[in-house]
Design goal:
Blueprint (H helix, E strand, L loop, with lengths): L3 E11 L2 H12 L4 E6 L2 E16 L12 E7 L2 H10 L3 E9 L2 E7 L5 E7 L2
Parallel strand pairs: 1-3, 4-7
Antiparallel strand pairs: 1-4, 2-3, 5-6, 6-7
InterPro entries: Glyas_Bleomycin-R_OHBP_Dase, Glyas_Fos-R_dOase_dom, VOC_core
Pfam families: Glyoxalase
Protein name: VOC domain-containing protein
């Protein structure tokens, strides 16, 4: 079974997300979406993308983790993976959510970092 197939997103808390996004855009030309390319077809866009997004410092989206960041990993079959992780004793957080852009589930690693798992609709 495939588990993680890529990095779907990097999320972190910020004092002023709007201002921080503008700074990164101006000085580093970093936007909110990194669109990856296939090295074998450099002129064609690959379906994979990584989201980069600061959140307000008081967000509860990373709960129950108290860490100032959360990683999002792309996965192939979210429900099957969560079932295996549950059997392996991994802490599952909340219920699977389905959106037009994919399914989401959450787990905690041994240090209490919340990890978002995303099965995208490519």
């Amino acid at each position: 079974m495939k588990r993680v197939t890529g990095i779907g997103g990097v999320f972190f808390k910020s004092e002023d997300p709007k201002q921080l996004k503008a700074w990164y855009q101006k000085h580093l030309e970093v936007g909110e979406v990194f669109q990856w390319t296939d090295l074998n077809q450099p002129d064609a866009k690959a379906p994979a993308q990584t989201i980069w997004s600061p959140f307000k410092k008081d967000t509860t989206y990373f709960a129950p983790s108290e860490k100032p960041f959360m990683l999002n990993y792309r996965v192939h079959d979210l429900r099957a993976l969560l079932a295996v992780l549950r059997e392996e004793g991994v802490t599952i957080v909340g219920e699977v959510e389905e959106h037009p852009y994919g399914k989401f589930g959450w787990i905690l690693d041994p240090e209490g970092n919340k990890i978002e798992l995303w099965e995208p609709i490519d």
